[in-house]
Amino acid sequence: MTVSAKAPSPDIVVRSAALSFGGDVLFDGLNVHLPGGRCTCLLGPSGVGKSSLLRLVAGLIAPGAGGKVSAGDGGMIAGRAVWMGQSDSLMPWLSARGNVAVGARLRGDTPYSEALARADDLLARVGLKGREADRPASLSGGMRQRVALARTLFEDRPFVLMDEPFSSLDAITRFMLQEEAARLLAGRTAVLVTHDPLEALRIGHEVLIMAGRPATLGESIKPPGDPPRDPADPRVLALQGELLRHLTRAREAA
Amino acid sequence: MIALRASITFAGLIVLWQAIVTITDLPHYLLPSPMRVAATLIERSDVLWENTLITVLEIVLGLILGVACGAICSLTLMASRLARRWLMPVLLASQAIPTFAIAPLLVLWFGYGLASKIVMTVIVIFFSVASAFYDGLRRTDPAWLDLAQTMTARPARVLWFLRVPAALPSLATGIRVASVFAPIGAIIGEWVGASRGLGYLMLQSNARMQIDMLFAALLVLAVFAVALYALVDRALRRLISWDADRLPAED
Fold first, then answer.
1. I want to staple B54 with a disulfide (CB 3.0 to 4.6 A). Which of A184, B36, B155, B197 is the partner?
2. In terms of CATH architecture, what is A12-80+157-253?
3. If you count DSSP H runs as helices and E runs as strands, how many of each does chain A have, helices first?
4. How many other CB atoms sit within 10 Å of the CB of residue B237?
5. Is the CB of A92 less than 8 angstroms away from the CB of B242?
6. Between B146, B148, B242, which is nearest A93 by CB?
7. Which of B149, B150, B158 should be substituted to probe chain A, the one whose Cβ sees the most A Cβ atoms within 10 Å?
8. Residue A14, SS3?
9. Model ipTM?
């Protein structure tokens, strides 16, 4: 079922990125290397700049003078990345299928009927067969985030940037969606910003902790086994405890 | 429910009106009784109908043209920085001129017929449509715009497929306001210079002390204005059903 991007997805390299908001330095000279084809989860206290770093990678904000964001193959990230935000950002006037194919509409690069047919396939893959014509208002929160996931798959890009996409869902829905996302996005270079250590451990190949002001990134933590991991695995639980201690220290230091 | 509430209000107003007539005992050429006005409505229905058609035509055409002008204007402002810099001040200044002041000029330029009233109506309503729609176009959810940007969307398509639909509820607000003010534009136009229409009829009746006729014309106009608003509101709700879901239906 997994559709990987055709070529192996490249790394993401951020060099000496700087960002400040009104004299408040979030980070300065930040270097990050995110391995290609893997999912890296970014953990850290709120307000530390995780989301900003993600937006910077997406090209939504500039990396500052001297800063540079590039892909491991020398190309750009912007234009080859797909964004999945905290809110599903579905357009209320479009059907589920129209929302999945919205990228084709906004670019005008594929015949729309073709795009809609592909959208229907993707909706079936995220378990929404039969709901293609429904407007977002008639879908539950979990279904809406599934549509957003299908929209992410529709873009079919090597880089997937996710900013707490599951944080507003109830525990069970979140659990199921984490698994689906991990399965469907396998093979792409994914970055997931989250505040939930267990989520990071379930779907990340690597976990990075961002802390301090200006923020720095800690050593990458590589949980054993392949995602999606079983949350009942004692090794996962032990790591979760460790991450929680880390994060508590990070917040107290701030 | 709405019909019941409306008829209770209507009946209440009639009773109040009759009470004022009875208590003050004003002569009928100053304040006619409801019965007298009703009689005029029936007896002179041919004259009223004839003039109502003219005014309705002016209002409806003015509304359609005014909404079109307002929408085109806000799209232009949105699409071009140059337009924002040069057109915006002109628009704002144009609204500072009282409409009444230019009405005689419009009659001079566009004649005594339909055209001057339609232009008048367009001038009265166009700004409320333009400002509401423009406001909506600028307030597109930033999350949608971020999404569009990462999708490498084309700017013209973002405007047409994202900003415009997202601003339709605001445009609808502008159109609702416009449908309330459109009759005012047409009536002002008719007062200043016309040979037909409800406004003309009112002015003539007033001059001839036929106050019952004036009241009858006013009543017809009020009924039409309320009907127009209800019709426009209903049509907009149907057209923008995805947004109407979030509004209570009876307000």
1. B197
2. 3-Layer(aba) Sandwich (3.40)
3. 8, 9
4. 15
5. yes
6. B242
7. B150
8. strand
9. 0.86
